[in-house]
Amino acid sequence: MPEHHESRVAVYIDFDNIVISRYDQVHGRGAWRKDNVYRLGPGLDGASAELRAKIEAATVDIGAIIDYATSFGTTVLSRAYADWSIGVNAGYQGQLMERAVDLTQLFPATAQMKNGADIRLAVDVVEDLFRLPDVTHVVIAAGDSDYIAVAQRAKRLGRHVVGVGVAGGTSRALAAACDEFADYDSMPGVRQPAQAEPRNAKKSDARAASPRKSAESATGKKASSQLLIRALELMHERDDADWLHTSEVKRQMVRLDPAFNEKAIGYSTFGDFLASRANIAELDDSNAQLHKVRLRHGEDR
């Protein structure tokens, strides 16, 4: 693959997957199908005021995904796959075209509304990587485990694979197949969804029902702490060094669990995350320019 000073990024969005996952995240599992959202045509004709409000509450910020992809380098191509005749999808077309995203039309192949996006997207990824050998990063916005094979194939071809998914709608196996995996909710600029207010509901009830970004759960804290310990142990063993650079430690944690992201569990920086694990990680504050950390000895933990 030719060398380039700047990374070049290809973006692939299973748009149906992202929109449906977001709707179900906000309104409950299976809500998209139960509410028959996929039956609405352009302009959301036939939708009640309540359903329109629910759709609005689950709006996806596509710009946030595209912006995130640009953080890896220059975007050389971007494609979104969906049945654009569905009213909800049609409402995003202008926004997508403004960001130079190619819209790939997919028609339902079965009564269950499966449109074969996974097959078409996978074929395009592999074809593009052979056709464009200068592409260094592949960003796949989807949550379906069907994309595991294409993620693995892209990695074998020497590309850095980044996954993007909606919490609750993403296969953990897919996250593990990527080099990195980002939670859509933790992306800069993404506002936390507010559930649509039911008719005749009191405002206080609606506020109580609105999902918030919760603090790190006890289970999540244990898992991330174990991940940090494992990363530090591996690096101390490999490098035989007393102090480790924090940036390298984070990279090791992401290698072990591509879904790890300190922002997704409530920390604005990796340094804040390490500070919250003072019983595990000791920070070197002797040099403000060099951020270093080491694993505390067993007796100190």
UniProtKB/TrEMBL annotation:
The organism's place on the tree of life at top rank: Bacteria
InterPro entries, per database record: LOTUS-like, NYN, OST-HTH/LOTUS_dom
Pfam families assigned: NYN, OST-HTH
Domain HTH OST-type: 223-297
Region (Disordered): 189-222
GO MF annotation, one: RNA nuclease activity
Protein's name in the database: OST-HTH/LOTUS domain-containing protein
Protein species of origin: Microcella putealis
